[in-house]
Amino acid sequence: MAAEKKIYSIVLMGDAASGKTSLSTKYLRDTFSEDYKKTTTVDFEIVKFPKAELQLWDTPGASEDISLRGLTLITADACILVFDLTRKESFDNLTTFLGEIRKATSNLPIMLVGTKLDLHQQRVVSKTDAINFVKEYNLTGYKEVSAAIDVDFQQTFNNIIKKINDTLTPSSTATTPMWASDKKAITPDSTGATCSAPNPCRIS
C-alpha cells in the first residue's frame, strides 16, 4: 500500500504591500512584477510533490480582513509572517498579525520574512531588530529575501519551508525535502476552477 500523501497548509500573513504576493509568485512561477495589485481576497495555490502537497495561502493585509485571515488559520500547519524592510510600519504591525495567529492556535510554527532586501538605501528595519523580534516571540526563524533580484530565491524559499517542515516533523530523517525542485502542475479546486494566476482559487 502506498504511503499516504502529506498535505501542508502554509499561510502568508502581513501588512498590505509587504510583499506576500510577490513572495509566493516568485516561488511558484519564478516571475516578478513591480506593478502592485492589492490582495482583497484569500488566494491559494496547490503544488503537488511526489510525497506531499503544499497549499500556499496568500491573505489580505487590511485590518478589516481579519475574518478572512481567520478562516485560513483554522487548518494551517504553519505561517510565514511577512514585513517590508523599507517600511517600519509593516514591522511594527507584526504583533497584530501575530496576535491573530496565536489566538487561533498557540503552537503554530511561524517563520519571519523580511522582503525587498534589494532596496538597501531605503532600508529602515535592521536585521538585529528582526532577530530580536524572533527571539522575543519565540518564532521558528528569520530570512531576508528579494523577489526582484535574488538569484537564490528558490533555494531561500525552500529553506524557509524546510525549516517549518522540520519543526512540524522533527523526527524525519529524509535527506531530500518534499519540495525539492519538482513542482507539479497546479490542480483544479472542487468547483472545477483552475488554481493558477491570473485566476487563483479564492475565498471571498
Q: Helices, strands, pairings?
A:
Blueprint: E1 6-14, H1 20-29, E2 42-48, E3 52-58, H2 66-73, E4 78-84, H3 88-92, H4 94-104, E5 110-115, H5 127-136, E6 141-144, H6 153-168, E7 201-203
Parallel strand pairs: 1-3, 1-4, 4-5, 5-6
Antiparallel strand pairs: 2-3, 2-7
Describe the structure.
With 204 residues, this protein is an alpha/beta fold. The protein has a single domain (9-31, 43-174), classed as P-loop containing nucleotide triphosphate hydrolases (Rossmann fold, 3-Layer(aba) Sandwich), CATH 3.40.50.300. It is built from 6 helices and 7 strands. The chain has a 7-stranded mixed β-sheet, with helices on both faces. The longest helix is centred in the C-terminal third of the chain and has 16 residues, at 153-168. The radius of gyration is 16 Å and the shape is globular.
| Rg over C-alpha atoms, rounded to the nearest angstrom | 16 Å
What is CATH's topology name? Rossmann fold
Mean pLDDT score: 75
Instruction: Indicate how many domains the architecture comprises.
Output: 1
CATH superfamily placement = P-loop containing nucleotide triphosphate hydrolases
Helix-and-strand structural type: alpha/beta
The CATH top-level class label: Alpha Beta
Beta content: 15-25%
Shape-level CATH architecture: 3-Layer(aba) Sandwich
- Tally of alpha and pi helices: 6
Poorly predicted parts: 170-204
* Inertia-based shape: globular
End-to-end CA span: 39 Å
Fraction of residues in helices? 25-40%
Overall number of strands: 7
